Structure formats: C-alpha cells, structure tokens
Amino acid sequence: MKKIGILGAGQLGRMLALAGYPLELDFFFYDTTGTPSVGLGNVSSDTSANLENPDLQTFIDSVDVVSYEFEHLPLQLAQHIEQKNTLHPSSRSLDVCQDRAKEKALFDRLGIPTPSYRVIDTEQGLIKAVEELGLPVVVKTTTEGYDGKGQFVIRQLEQCQEAWHTIGSRTLIVEAFVNFTRELSIIAVRATDDNIEVYPLAENQHNDGILRYSTAPAPRVDDETASQARSYAKELIHELDHVGILTLELFETEKGLVANEMAPRVHNSGHWSIEGAPCSQFENHLRAITGLPLGCTQASRPTCMINIIGEKGDIQSLLELPYAHVHLYAKEERPGRKLGHVTVQADSYEELVWRVNNVASLLPGSPEFGGYSTP
Amino acid sequence: MKKIGILGAGQLGRMLALAGYPLELDFFFYDTTGTPSVGLGNVSSDTSANLENPDLQTFIDSVDVVSYEFEHLPLQLAQHIEQKNTLHPSSRSLDVCQDRAKEKALFDRLGIPTPSYRVIDTEQGLIKAVEELGLPVVVKTTTEGYDGKGQFVIRQLEQCQEAWHTIGSRTLIVEAFVNFTRELSIIAVRATDDNIEVYPLAENQHNDGILRYSTAPAPRVDDETASQARSYAKELIHELDHVGILTLELFETEKGLVANEMAPRVHNSGHWSIEGAPCSQFENHLRAITGLPLGCTQASRPTCMINIIGEKGDIQSLLELPYAHVHLYAKEERPGRKLGHVTVQADSYEELVWRVNNVASLLPGSPEFGGYSTP
User: Fold this and answer.
1) Domain range holding B323?
2) In the Cβ-directed half-sphere of A339, how many Cα atoms lie within 13 Å?
C-alpha cells in the first residue's frame, strides 16, 4: 500500500484521501497553519515549519511521495522535502504559483495573454503604474492572498495611498482591469510520462472574491475557445514539468481568453468532478503522483458545484433534495469560511439552474445564482 | 460531528466510512474477527468479544449510535450494546438473520414464498427430510455460513451421511432445490420514522458460491415482479422495525419470486449504488441510523459490479479503462477472498456486457460473464 504525504490538512487533503483509499493509498498530513481540519489519516502540525522538527523527518520517512493541497507554504519546506523524497508537483511549480510576478512572466514567455501589469514596491511606483495602465486597476500582493484577500481595486487616482496602506506596503502587482464577460477555469493533470488529460472548462461565479458557483462543462463555449484553453493549460503544465493537477483561471473577454492566475493543486472549481466526471480531480491527482494511468476527465452531463460559505444552512432540507450531493468539511462555522459544497447534475442547463436555485435557497447568504451570463 | 460505532471492521465498514465523512460523521470500529482491514477511523479488536473488556465500554461510550457491517457476531454483544446505547438495526434483526430457521419462519408468517424446508438435528432427521422434500435438496447450517460456506447439495439419498458429517452434525436446515432462472436481490432502507426507500432489483451471478457480478437495475424485470420484490422487502423491514439497510436475496422461478435469505446490512449486491444511484446504500444506511432524510435510490443507468476475488489482477490496465471505477479494500490476496470490486456503467445492457467482459478479462480466475440469462 503506497503512503501519500500531503502538505496542508484542510478540505482538499480530505477529499484527496477520500478519493485515494479505494486505490489502497494511505495518507499522512503535515499542517503548517495550526488549524488542520482534515479529520482523516495521520496528522502532524508545526506552524513554525521548522526544518529541524523531528516530526517533519518522520513525515518524510513515512511516505512514498509528497504532494501539497495548498500553495501558501514555505518554499524552503518544499525544497527540503524534495531533497529527501519525491515531491509532486515539484517546488518549481510552487515557486512560480506563489509569486504573481513569476507567474505573469511565465504567461508572457509562453505567449498566453494576461492583463497588462506592472510590478511595484513603492507608493510612487503604484501611482506611476496606474498612470501607465489607466484606471481602473487591480492591485494584489505578489506572494500571498487568495479568495480575494490582499486585493484592492483602484478606480480613482487618489485611492492609491489607501490601496498602498491597506494591502500593507510590500511588492505588489498592478493589473489593468479586464472587462470580462465571465470567469472560467480549466484543470489539467499530467503524469510522470508527460501524458496530459484536461477537464472541460468550468464557469465560475464569485461573490466578495469567494467562489460560489462552478459549472462544468461551462455552457456556450465555442470549439475555438475550448481548444485555446486546453492548449494554454497543456503548455503550462508541460513547461513546468508539473506532475499532478494544475488549475488555470481565465477571463473570457470580447478579444478571447486572458489568463488570470494558476494554482498548482486540486481546485475548488474542480469539485464538480467528484460526481460529474468518471475520474475526479482528486483521484487523477493521486493517479498522477503515484504513477498510475490517468483517468477519464469528460463530464457526463451539466454539473454545478455550490459552495457552502460561512454557515452550514439547512442541511436536513438539502439532503431531502434527490439531486443534491452534500459534501461537508467538518469545519466550524465562520464568516467567509468554506464549510462544504453541494453538487447538482441535470440533463439540461435549464433544469440545472432550477435545481441550483433550490439548493441556494437553503444556504443562508448565498448570492442569487440566476443562471449563466451571455458572453 | 456525530460518531458512528460499527461492529466489524472489513470492507463494508470501510465503504460506510468513505460515504460518511462527507456527512461529517466520524467512525469507530469494533472487530471480533481478529483481522480488521478497514484501514480508516479508530479500530479496537477483541476476538473473545468479552463483554467485560474495557475497550468495549470505551467504544460504546465514544459513539452516538452503533451499527454492524457483519451479522455473524455474538448476539449477546449486540444485546449488551443495545442496553447501553442505540443499536441500529436492532439485535432482533441480527437474531432473525443469524438463524435460517427463524428467518424462514418470518418469511412464512408474512406469506413470502420460500423453498419448502425442514429443520433437523440428527442424521435420521436429514434422511426423513430428504424423503419428504424429494431430491435434490440443499443442506445448510441454521446459524452460520455465508458465501456458500457450510452448504451441501444432496443429489442422491446415500449422500446424506457425507453431508451430515461434512457440515458437522448440528442443527441444519434442509431446503427443497429451487429450479430458478436467476438470482436477484433487493435492498431496502428504513428510517426511524418508518419511511422506506427501495433500490431497484439487482441480478446476481455467483461462482463457487461467491458473488461475481451484480447488475442493477436487473434487466428484463416486469412491473409485477418488481412490485412483488419491493413489497416483500418493505414488509420485512417494517415488520422487523429495522433501521438501516436490509437486503433480501431472491430466486426468480417460473412460478414467481422465492425468498432465499436476507442480510441485515449493506450488501455486496448493492455496491453498484456507489456510482449507480444518487445516494449509495452506504450513505443511505448512515442517513437512516443518524436520523437524516433518506436519499434517492433510483439507478441512473445500467450498472454492473464485478468482484475482485483472490487475486488483484492487472490493476494498472483496469485503471486505463475510462469506464471502470476501481475500489480496492487494502486486503492481502488469498483464494476466494473479496479484495475489491469494479463498477461499470453504460447506456445500454449490450454496451454494459462488452465493458464488463473487458474488465473481467483483466481479473484472473473471473468466470465468464456472458451477459444476462433469459428468464
């Protein structure tokens, strides 16, 4: 039985383990956040991520391969592990995905369109960047932040000071605002032999910077767009020599797809694949990192994933819906926290919208779903 | 988070846990066989099933409700637990299902057809039973045996002595041989409020007494047969005041359905429901025993479960089949042992047969599938 080490111990690790037990894999988690919630397998925790911690050595020695569910972990930790055991994806993927400036440079180098940007590290630099790019702009930290954290939209020049101080005076990336019709994402998985499989594009709807709805296959995607997205994902995953799942977030604009950012891991916009594809993103990640053949990534029918955020809502009523698949993460309620998700499938997008709205009506604070935007 | 105690710690407990974590359930297993293989949750073991064992008290105190994955466990253990915590299904279901004579009496009382039988406890009684029932007969122990163990088919009167000594001289049940066209099973689940849901009939193909293939919905079932099977399952589960899953095995004969035996638990012939139904037998069992609403039991499309017996076979090649869902139980190979199963779905039975045969060709020792018998 192969033993899998996972850096991070949240819901992504939990869903990896649930997908991996049927493949006779066993799981060891190493948490650096201090709040492991995985509730499965063997868990060690060290918030200092001290490389001399004997628990770390035990973790490394106990497993056949190490992966991560979370890219915001110390790069040195990943590099240290990589010297002693196999790390998939490698620390290079982590390095690039942790730093928006490196990520942008990679997009540029591969000719993948991305919003115009400047990297700045002074308030003056911010003002100059805004003048060059034009308003509005989105300001983000280069090295941290997810789910909309560490971001600021500047709509008027005088907001530069506020943005600079709110985010906290460090190296920032300033991006031209993209007038997009919708947000899409695409998930690819690559095996050690460079075999690559790609899931269909998902359409993502956010609220307050947090993903709320993800639908796959994204409705109304023409062949050219689908093919373009697949090709971007494949180029990136191949270039990074990345083994496992890689997620690329995209904006759909009138001029075509524009890359937003990527994540070197299973992704919230791929949770639909547990019920919606023959082989889920979690199973495929494990297949990839353990040298097993990749599984089928085709969507069986229109599927939507609805996040449960902040409050669990009326779970009893959710379970009464014959089409709702409920996944809870065993986490305490807290505003903005991802506590679980619900997956719904249907034979048509019309029926899917109806079902998703029924689910959303049972989740307090869920923004209206309202169907799909017309590109 | 509710804590579930399971008596037994094999693959059924494992699949219960995998279905239960997304409902925020946690699992404690109490094994009396000495060979726990569950590989998940908290496991205690006591082959003597000593009621004074402090681990047993700890197990009982740790959980909110106790269930069992296995009916061949000491009745006193179940009754002891029932005095101290909630046991679902109750010890009454266990008592009836452990004893073929009691099971038969219940079938008789509810007017559910079952093969003619005699209960005997001497070799002379066996000969008399054979004379009354006519040859061939099937001789079984009343209180033990599963997967064809502890059974003997008598085709000639002079085999009575051999049968008596082979099985081991105890209370036996002698059944008239049933000329059946195929073996079916039906799985029902009942909630504490007497709400009952029933899965579609499955067609089961055995080899050497071990289930090899299970297809649901069973092909070519007329409405009357389906309705008859549902009504038998509902009568039994209601009569037993049974909370959780109950499985009824049936013979299809020219004169209609005949009850073979039942199991007070999730069943191998229901594994197809993990992929094949919106709510699997495992999830529905957990929903029932924790007071959650029952889930949808409808089959989405023709589904076949293929058991992996004795040897694991060519798992790499199995994983290459885009339509094969592989479930391994983390057990060592041993002749006749259930090591895992593969689930296959298709849009038609013709396509299903082709896919199942592809899977079977990768499993050493698998009997030919050959499609479905014509009733």
Assistant:
1) 182-360
2) 20
Check CB contact under 8 Å for B21 and A322.
Answer: no
User: Which residues contact residue B225 at a Cβ distance below 8 angstroms, ignoring those fewer than 6 apart?
Assistant: B201, B252, B256, B257
Q: How far is CA A369 from CA A63, A106, A221, A319, B222, in A?
A: 43, 34, 19, 20, 42
| Residue to test with chain A: of B21, B193, B331, most A Cβ within 10 A | B21
Read off the pLDDT of residues B56-69 as tens digits, 9 standing for 90 and up: 999 999 999 999 99
Q: What secondary structure letter does DSSP report for B129?
A: H
Convert the pLDDT of each residue in B105-159 to its tens digit. 999 999 999 999 999 999 999 999 999 999 999 999 888 765 556 788 999 999 9
CA pair distance B38, B5, nearest whole angstrom: 13
* Nearest CB to B21 within list A39, A278, A316: A39
ipTM of the prediction: 0.94
CATH code for position A142 = 3.30.1490.20
| A126, A145, A176 - which closes a domain | A176
Phi, psi of A216, rounded to the nearest 5 degrees: -140, 145
Domain shared by A64 and A206, yes or no: no
Interface mutation target, options B15, B23, B24, chain A, most CBs of A under 10 Å: B24
Between CA A221 and CA A215 the distance in angstroms is 12
The whole-number pLDDT of residue A375 equals 46
Q: Which of B24, B319, B330 sits opposite A295 (nearest CB)?
A: B319
| Predicted local distance difference test score (pLDDT) of residue A374 | 54
The whole-angstrom distance between A340's CA and the closest CA on chain B is 9
Question: How many separate domains does chain B show?
Answer: 3
* Residue B366 lies inside a defined structural domain of this protein: no
Domain identity same for B163 and B249? no
Q: List the CATH number of the domain containing A215.
A: 3.30.470.20
Residues of B in contact with A322 (CB under 8 A): 278-279, 295-296, 298
From the list B292, B319, B320, the residue facing A319 with the nearest CB is B292
CB A352 within 8 A of CB A360: no
Final residue of a structural domain among B38, B71, B87: B87
Local structure of B325: helix, strand or coil:
strand
pLDDT at B373 over 90: no
Indicate the pairing of strand B25-31 with strand B2-7. parallel
CATH number assigned to the domain comprising residue A10? 3.40.50.20
* Tens-digit pLDDT profile for residues B252-275: 999 999 999 999 999 999 999 999
Q: Would A68 be classed as within a structural domain?
A: yes
